[in-house]
Amino acid sequence: RRAMSGxxxxxxxxxxxxxxxxxxxxxxxxxxxxxxxGQPTATKRKIIEVPYTETVQVPVHSKVHTKHVEERLVxxxxxxxxQKYKDVKETVVEYKEEKVxxxxxxxxxxxxxxxxxxxxxxxxxxxxxVPYTDxxxxxxxxxxxxxxxxxxxxxxxxxxxxxxxxxMEVEQDLHLHHGPVVVREGTPRMREIxxxxxxxxxxxxxxxxxxxxxxxxxxxxxxxxxxxxxxxYEYERPSSSGSVRSVASGSVKQFxxxxxxxxGEAYGMKFxxxxxxxxxxxxxxxxxxxxxxxxxxxxxxxxxxxxxxxVNGVRGNAKxxxxxxxxxxxxxxxxxxxxxxxxxxxxxxxxxxxxxxxxSSSRLLEDRTLQAALA
Length: 375
Hints:
Distance between the termini: 39 Å
CATH superfamily of the largest domain: PDZ domain
CATH class of the largest domain: Mainly Beta
Mean pLDDT: 75
Number of domains: 2
CATH topology of the largest domain: Pdz3 Domain
Order of helices and strands: HEHEEEEEEEEEEEEEHEEHEH
Largest sheet: 8 strands, antiparallel
Number of strands: 17
Low-confidence stretches: 214-249, 344-375
Number of helices: 5
């Protein structure tokens, strides 16, 4: 019977170690209160919340600025100085000597012929070469280096350590003597039950990029270490408090949301995919598709803090959920878990099975105690 119920025997040392590592213990009602006269044994049961660390793959989209320089041939016009000459005619005055015969008086009263040189001005036209500088156009080609930087996106994954807890049910037989007097405790038995919690990332792994770089296209905006899909989702780093604590007000409900996404239109939501199994909405941008859907459908709103666990039948992997959201247009069915106030009622068709509250136990410690226990 015990094997069918899923229990396995554990030693007392293992039981004590389980209690020392636990972050919360909830004991059931004292079994001695319901002991009947002559009953030889009673079973003591308790729920132990045990922390453990799980390695999950988180998709990473990194924006990379790549510097690139190209050589291009530019054609231009250059003015080259050229030495030239031109002929210029000018008139100058030169003196020409010529012999003129005349007579002169001598002592002898007699005319005697003689010669003398007379300088007469004569206009002469000469041509000379005058140098001057002229410019001629010459086609030249030069190689110039032009910056052609590129904005590229690398896609990969990162293995993070996620802190989770699992609930273990432990039962132990109490051997009685003469009524509710315990004479001996039997061997403890343990089994795992559902209802554990995800508390957040304890260690971020090294980023591993599995594909080459690609150019970013479209009007989407990205953040550092993030990538904006065509569907409007953006991956961002989880906040220090929002990744560990959820909104405390209201109870957790699971429901379905049906959207009819037009092709090429962005959802207008940011999310956190750090747990690797689901995506948590961290922001709903006003004026976008989801914001308009919330105004038209107040009974099926998508709010900050809601956890999307299934998209069109896909669940269990954050990357697959993101791909199903961003690559799908038309009818989209999302299964969402979110906290809603008690006065907020949804139609019966929209409300799914209620998620068991992990904070129902009054003796479960706060998350800060859990972190200290693992330190």
